[in-house]
Design a protein that fits this description.
heterodimer, A: alpha+beta, SH3 type barrels, 4 strands, elongated, B: alpha/beta, 10 helices, globular
Chain lengths: ~70, ~300
């Protein structure tokens, strides 16, 4: 079931988001400026395949140089 | 409670314990005891918390350890009971369990300081679990499911809500006076400042329970000229720097300060600046993350504190 995402409150650098009557924190910096308690928010999550590929290559190269055997 | 009723009550208690000791398996007993003392959230420090005992003629205030949130149970000298806030929704079962463990059958007064989830989350379950007398809330509303469901539960039970605001008196009898000192205004940008602030005066002792009221509300209370002095202060907003302004703290001048907070919370509560102010003011500070449920009893003259 899809619940609405609602800003319950702002605490310091965190937005406390209500989702299905439980809450979790997301960094306030990820929210549009001016977002406030009581706002209903929409979150769109996409997987960035090219960014992941680039990081994989970078880190594999870094690790390769560090292994002795 | 009459002497006869009190004796019957004790007999029932005695019978209950005899039953538990005689009939229940050891494992079952252990589970029962664990369940009713373990009020903290699963992921938190789960020291067994002390459970208040009902003492007729005394005022017993339990600052129930609900993790990051607020919940205060007041067993009034009249024999009635008052609950202020009920923690987050996950705390609901533990709050109900704590109340039931004291033999309490009815919440005569239910107060929601303001509709943030860490204050009203467990309240829907409380309303479903006990007969409720009067409900008090401030007029600050929000859009969350938690708040909507609470209102719908209240509506479904055919109950109505009384407005909590400065100047409203809940009880004034036999040396016990409970009234609201805030909110003083009619419009706030932040829900925290909508917080109902409850003053409890019993004989020569007093408690000030502030919800999440911040400096703006504190200044309004100071300006209103009401007597803010209290022996016990439930520190505003979990010890955040947003509350407990110097002028306000000076006016309250508490002997004991209680901070309701979860260890290792993301918000840095309680903030060091607040702890420093409380330390400089000279009172004793209790914290639910360190002391578990804190129980303060008043006989109208003296206070006694039970905390780990």
């Amino acid at each position: 079931m899809n619940y609405m995402l609602i800003i319950d409150r702002i605490e310091e650098d965190w937005a406390v988001i209500e989702y299905g009557k439980k809450t979790f924190n997301i960094p306030l910096s990820l929210l549009p400026k001016g977002a406030k308690e009581g706002d209903v928010i929409n979150v769109l999550v996409t997987v960035d395949e090219s960014a992941a590929k680039s990081r994989t290559d970078d880190i594999k190269a870094l690790a390769k140089d560090l292994f002795e055997d | 409670m009459s002497k006869k009723t009190k004796t019957s009550f004790l007999l029932i208690l005695l019978a209950l314990f005899t039953f538990l000791a005689g009939c229940g398996s050891a494992a079952k007993n252990e589970a029962t005891v664990h369940n009713r003392t373990d009020v903290a959230m699963e992921e938190e420090k789960t020291e067994p918390n002390k459970v208040a005992t009902t003492v007729n003629g005394k005022l017993v205030v339990s600052f129930i350890n609900v993790g990051q949130g607020d919940c205060e149970l007041l067993q009034l000298p009249t024999g009635q009971n008052m609950l202020i806030d009920a923690g987050i929704s996950e705390a609901g079962p533990a709050v109900v369990s704590y109340i039931k463990s004291l033999g309490i059958k009815k919440i005569d007064y239910l107060i929601a300081t303001h509709p943030h989830a860490d204050h009203i989350g467990g309240m829907e379950l409380v309303v479903k679990s006990f007969p409720i007398g009067k409900i008090y809330m401030t007029r600050g509303t929000t859009t969350t499911e938690t708040f909507k469901d609470l209102l719908q539960t209240i509506k479904a039970r055919g109950m109505t809500i009384n407005t909590a605001k400065a100047g409203v008196t809940v009880i004034d009898q036999n040396g016990l006076k409970i009234s609201f000192l805030a909110p003083c205004g009619n419009s706030y940008e932040e829900l925290n400042n909508w917080s109902a602030v409850t003053k409890v005066q019993f004989g020569n002792t007093s408690f000030l329970l502030t919800g999440d009221a911040q400096e703006l509300s504190e200044n309004e209370m100071l300006k209103s000229g009401v007597n803010l002095q209290a022996d016990v202060l439930k520190v505003g907003h979990h010890g955040s720097y947003s509350s407990t302004s110097p002028a306000f703290l000076k006016a309250v001048d508490p002997k004991y300060a209680v901070i309701s907070v979860r260890q290792g919370n993301d918000y840095g509560h309680p903030h060091q600046v607040t702890l420093d102010k409380l330390s400089a003011a000279g009172g004793t500070v209790y914290r639910t993350d360190q002391n578990g449920t804190v129980v303060i009893t008043s006989d109208g003259k003296n206070l006694s504190v039970k905390a780990w």
